[in-house]
């Protein structure tokens, strides 16, 4: 029986990367007088590494051989990331990033049916609560039995640790749950924890390898604006009846 839905955040609940995180990173770089500037194309490459601090280190190591790291580089990364989180959460508070099609509808239906909800994400906890509060409902962080986020596990996605941590806190087996992801790294993480996983793609992840997913969709769909299934000819709206069908397959 399907008992719980576990959601990734970035790219899955909302399109946060290109016009959210990326913009906030660039604002932080400017505030620190750095000449780092991540355009939308470069950011797509940087998404290979999850986690903002890890992504900045990856950028320096792989794209800026000219940059000379100061002795306190690790501290600089932490401070840059705090500044970036401040920018990002202010953007969310200003209502800057809406949820993707079907997300609010499906979460409402799942709550009414008594399913448990959880979050399993690489992003910083403050980012999750700000997005939920400002784009879903002010009290919506309380709707989630578990919010597993950020540095609570050292190994970020594609490692399965964040999903294992969430399952453990919920006291549920992977076989009782369904995960929602948007990227190859996220799918690997959820599958690694033994979770059946539904993928909704976005512009950055459309070309990713999604082998092993239950289904690969354009989005969750809304009445009047159905999803398109990418792995076969099908359109529709993701509701609990459809999830249960996929879950039982
Ligand atoms: C999300 C991420 C995050 C954000 C930045 O990956 O990689 O790192 O880009 O967030 P996923 P922070 O959707 O697979 O969880 O800067 O707060 O780390
Ligand atoms: Mg994601």
**Named CATH architecture of the largest domain:** 3-Layer(aba) Sandwich
If strands are numbered along the chain, what order do they take across the biggest sheet? 3-2-1-4-5-6
CATH superfamily of the largest domain: HAD superfamily/HAD-like
Would you tell me the structural class of the helices and strands?
Answer: alpha/beta
The hetero compounds bound to this protein are: xylulose-1,5-bisphosphate, magnesium ion
Structural summary, described in words:
With 249 residues, this protein is α/β, with parallel strands linked by helices. It has 2 domains: 161 residues, Rossmann fold (3-Layer(aba) Sandwich), CATH 3.40.50; 77 residues, Orthogonal Bundle (DNA polymerase, domain 1). Helices cover 42% and strands 12% of the residues. Strand 7 and strand 8 form a beta hairpin. Helix 1 crosses helix 4, helix 3 crosses helix 4 and helix 4 packs parallel to helix 6. The longest helix is centred in the middle third of the chain and has 21 residues. The two termini are 12 Å apart. The mean pLDDT is 97. The protein binds xylulose-1,5-bisphosphate and magnesium ion.
